[in-house]
């Protein structure tokens, strides 16, 4: 029975769940949520998810939100001995650290730099851009001795990070100075199952959404 998946194709966290589901061959019953139309604020949605965010899944009555929690859940329930999130505690700890870095450092710094420009029409803050590049330098270092970000195999950490790196890259923030990231980015595009369908198409939709927001806030 497919899992109900409340999402937006443009959303990087939603694309992470898509990538995990594709890797595990977990069927999803996709329910597009139009954030700009306020569909996430409808009473029935808030009743299901009081944080009214996306992605949200409903798996045979079990409701869960927050993308990384969903990714772990899908592997734990449907992944068996999947290398996406191995059972060894030290291997998991490294993956968890990379996931925390993704949301708490890389994405947070991208948000702080980029979204004030898009949502508020502010000028680019060079200090915030420097912080973002410091995060890229950290990621580049993680990849110095690893094929993937947490070792020699594709994991949840790669799928989460690639959703955000592809998003950042799509708005013209260069990663050209980070050869390890460039190598890894190309590798994940080639090895993550159904990458283009699960992430690539959504990145293009994200660019379109950002273009509309920029247009609205420039008037």
TrEMBL record:
Give residue ranges for domain GST C-terminal.
88-209
GO MF assignments: glutathione transferase activity
Q: Which UniProt keywords apply?
A: Transferase
Output the SUPFAM superfamilies linked to this UniProt entry: GST C-terminal domain-like, Thioredoxin-like
Q: Name one Pfam family in it.
A: GST_N
Provide one Gene Ontology biological process annotation. Answer: glutathione metabolic process
The GST N-terminal domain sits at 1-82
Q: How does it assemble?
A: Homodimer.
Known PANTHER family for this protein? GLUTATHIONE S TRANSFERASE D10, ISOFORM A-RELATED (PTHR43969:SF9)
Similarity section: Belongs to the GST superfamily.
Q: Provide the protein name.
A: Glutathione S-transferase 1, isoform D
Q: Which organism is it from?
A: Papilio xuthus
Upper classification of the source organism reads: Eukaryota, Metazoa, Ecdysozoa, Arthropoda, Hexapoda
